[in-house]
Structures are given as structure tokens and as C-alpha cells.
Write a structure and sequence with these properties.
Elements lengths: L1 H34 L1 H12 L3 H9 L1 H7 L1 H11 L1 H18 L6 H15 L2 H10 L7 H9 L1 H17 L9 H23 L12 H19 L6 H6 L1 H32 L3 H29 L3 H21 L4 H6 L1 H14 L8 H33 L3 H18 L6 H4 L8
Length: 435
């Protein structure tokens, strides 16, 4: 057994080096193209005379397209393989992301944001499902955390980059916001073609793994899948009816209402707090992301080491609630930026433990459907959060009311996470500590 463990660990080291950095880069591109509209708004809203309500709705409508095609997309990935389908997703979303530079009217803005969501649908749950092919249960939170670290890294890179690209305003007759969409969209197309040639669908196809190591890893993953199959329904329909799937979705629906609102509105919030220029807004956003990265790594590693999941999700979500509430109470003050930073810090810490839960009790086609359904419920909040903040800002002229609503939603998410500790035997009957 010791020899098998050694082979398995050696295989996992190669898998981490081969897959995680590449998937990490893909998600940086995806996240940048999803949220760069928040930086574009610093110029675009004035140039196109978009109201706060129109911008909030257009930002959020992305998630309607995303949610409609989330589950079908994961079914297709399950059938045709991750390599082909992830490549298709990236190429199509990169083209649409770059095409955002041609927006002139609110309707065009809504249509392209909706189509961007359709194009990107399935990328995130597809990667989470794909990881279950390669990483055994006890290694999954760190793998997911390493992948999702792309979110704060995208902020670290994308914030200053977006601020700098806005400085190209007027070059060749284009606005800075147009250069931003073009320059940040095209790399996704190139990465899509690279993914077609680089990714490997399953360990069985990995010619870059020695045969003995490959066999040890496949045996470990097969054993875990058989254990899950013996205790849970395996059909896609059964997973869609599973109360645990809906419970998990509801938790991050509430939490992500705030986080998606943060990603879209934070550049404007930061600018209103300190009254600085666009480049400094990007620099502040990048500095916040640096802290997020460290906290993500620590919480994911501790969750894997202890085998505990719910508290590693609930406590960070409580921190998100404190961030929004403190920001609302402090108002337009430079200190508000420090409190606002608690929002991405808390969400970042929760990601790895949370997204390692679905694949601990779902396998095969049921995992493809169940993970996609959780992601669909979660991403529906991406429409609600930015749209709600935009509507309340349009009515009241300030952000306080919207921030308090988001604080309440995040606090409720933390509370409804705690009961998962009592459900861990149902979610993972073989090793209750896995949650």
C-alpha cells in the first residue's frame, strides 16, 4: 500500500503541475472578461449616457444567459470531453468580449452581455467537474482553491491593467473603455486554441503520466467513485432533485449576490470613497486582491488538512456580511475601502471548501448535472446583485441601502451553511470528516 501511495502522490504532483497552472490562466481570462465592465463603466457610462439602472441591469443580464445554458453545457462537456468543450467556450466568449467595444446603446449592451453569458456558460462548473476526474477527495479543496485563486489574481492584474487601458482614451479615435474590451478579450480566443491542443480529458488518456503512476491514480479515483455510487443515486435527474444540491445553491446564491455586486460596482465605490483617478482605482483593487490570495490559500489548506468544510465556508461568509455592513455605516470615507476589502477576502476564503462539497457526494453524470445546477443557482445571483444595487442607487442616489441588503444576504448565507455539519453523513457517508 505504501508503494501505491507513493505512486499516487507522484502522479498527483505531475497532475498539479500539468493542469492547475493552465486552468488558472484560463479562469483569469474568463473572470477578467466577465467583470471588466466595472472598470469600463468609469468612462463608458458617461460616454454612452448610461444610467445607474441601465448599467446595473446590463451587467447582471450576463448571468441570465449564463444560467440558462449552465446545465446543458455541462452535459455536453460530459459527452464530448473537456478539451473540446472548454476550447469552444473560450473562443466564443473571447470574440464576444472583444465585440463589447462596439456597444452604442443600452439595448446593444444588454444583448452582448447576455450573449457573453451564453458563451461562457459551463466553463466554471465544467472545470470543477473536470477536476473530479483527476483529484481524489482529500486533495480537492486545495486544487479548487488553486484554480479559483485566479479571481483575486485577475483583480491583482486586471485592476491596474484596466486602469492603464482607460488611459488610452482617444487613441486612434477609440475610447479607453473600447481599448479595454478589445485588448482584454482577444487573449481568450488564443487560449481557446491552446486548450484544444493542451488539455487531456481523463487520466486514462494521459500519455504524460508513467503507466504505474497512472494506474495508481486511476485505481484511487475508481475506488472513491464506487463508494459514492453505492450510497447515492447516480442519475442526472436524481441529482437535480437532491435537496443537498439546492441547499448548497441557496447558500452561495445569497453570498454571491454581494460578491457579484462588488465585482461590478467596486471600481465606482472606491472612486467615490477616495476621489482618485482611474489608474489609482485599479491599483487599490489590485492591492486588495493580494490579501485575498493569501487568505484563500490558508483557508483551503486548513480545510483539507482537517477534513472540515461547513465552518470553513460559514465563517468567511460572516466576514463578507461584516464588510458590507461596515462599509454602509462608514459612508464615503477612505476607511470604507479597508472594510470593503473584507468582502472579497471572505468570499475568496469560502470558495475552495464550498466547491469541494458537491463532488464529495456526486459522481459521473449525476456530478455533471448536480455541479452545474449548483452553479446555475449561484450565478442567478449575479443578475440579482448588480441589478439591485443599480436600482437602489438610481432611486436613492447613494449605495448605503444596497450595501445593507447585501450584508443581510451574506449573513443569512453564513447561518444556513452551519446545518451542513449535521448533514455531513448524508452528503458523505464514508468519511464524515470530508465535509
Amino acid at each position: 500500500m505504501a508503494g501505491i501511495d507513493s505512486l499516487e502522490e507522484s502522479a498527483l504532483r505531475k497532475v498539479r503541475v500539468r493542469l492547475l497552472p493552465f486552468l488558472f490562466v484560463l479562469y483569469i481570462a474568463a473572470w477578467t472578461d466577465r467583470v471588466n465592465v466595472g472598470f469600463a463603466a468609469l468612462q463608458m457610462n458617461d460616454a454612452l449616457r448610461f444610467s445607474a439602472t441601465a448599467f446595473g441591469f446590463g451587467s447582471g443580464v450576463f448571468f441570465l444567459g449564463y444560467c440558462l445554458f449552465e446545465v446543458p453545457s455541462n452535459f455536453i462537456l460530459h459527452r464530448v470531453g473537456a478539451r473540446r468543450w472548454i476550447a469552444r467556450i473560450m473562443i466564443s466568449w473571447g470574440i464576444i468580449a472583444a465585440a463589447m467595444m462596439f456597444v452604442k446603446t443600452p439595448l446593444q449592451f444588454y444583448m452582448l452581455r447576455f450573449l457573453l453569458g451564453v458563451a461562457e456558460a459551463g466553463f466554471f462548473p465544467g472545470v470543477i467537474y473536470y477536476m473530479s476526474y483527476w483529484f481524489p477527495r482529500q486533495h480537492r479543496a486545495r486544487a479548487v482553491g488553486a484554480f479559483m485563486m485566479a479571481i483575486p489574481v485577475a483583480g491583482l492584474i486586471g485592476g491596474p491593467l484596466s486602469g492603464a487601458l482607460l488611459g488610452l482614451d482617444g487613441l486612434m479615435g477609440l475610447g479607453g473603455w473600447q481599448w479595454l474590451f478589445l485588448i482584454e478579450g482577444l487573449p481568450s480566443v488564443l487560449l481557446g486554441f491552446w486548450a484544444w491542443h493542451y488539455l487531456t480529458d481523463r487520466p486514462e488518456d494521459a500519455r504524460w503520466l508513467p503507466e504505474e503512476e497512472k494506474a495508481a491514480l486511476i485505481a484511487r479515483l475508481a475506488m472513491e467513485q464506487q463508494e459514492i455510487q453505492g450510497s447515492h443515486a447516480r442519475s442526472a435527474l436524481a441529482s437535480l432533485r437532491n435537496p443537498a444540491v439546492w441547499h448548497l445553491g441557496s447558500i452561495f446564491f445569497l453570498a454571491n449576490m454581494g460578491f457579484y455586486a462588488y465585482t461590478i460596482w467596486s471600481p465606482q465605490l472606491i472612486k467615490s470613497f477616495v476621489g482618485t483617478d482611474d489608474l489609482m482605482v485599479g491599483a487599490i483593487s489590485g492591492a486588495i486582491s493580494t490579501v485575498v490570495i493569501a487568505i484563500m490559500l490558508l483557508n483551503c489548506a486548513h480545510s483539507d488538512r482537517t477534513g472540515e468544510r461547513p465552518l470553513h465556508v460559514a465563517i468567511p461568509l460572516g466576514i463578507v456580511a461584516l464588510g458590507f455592513a461596515g462599509c454602509a455605516l462608514l459612508g464615503n470615507s477612505p476607511l470604507s475601502i479597508v472594510v470593503l476589502a473584507l468582502v472579497p477576502i471572505g468570499m475568496g476564503a469560502a470558495y475552495g471548501p464550498f466547491w469541494s462539497i458537491p463532488s464529495s457526494f456526486l459522481v459521473g453524470e449525476a456530478a455533471a448535472a448536480g455541479i452545474a445546477m449548483v452553479a446555475t443557482i449561484v450565478n442567478a445571483s449575479g443578475f440579482v446583485g448588480p441589478t439591485l444595487v443599480g436600482a437602489l442607487k438610481g432611486q436613492t442616489g447613494e449605495y448605503t441601502t444596497g450595501l445593507l441588503v447585501l450584508a443581510a444576504a451574506a449573513g443569512l448565507a453564513a447561518l444556513v451553511t452551519v446545518p451542513l455539519r449535521r448533514s455531513r453523513r448524508q452528503l458523505h457517508p464514508l468519511r464524515s470528516r470530508a465535509l
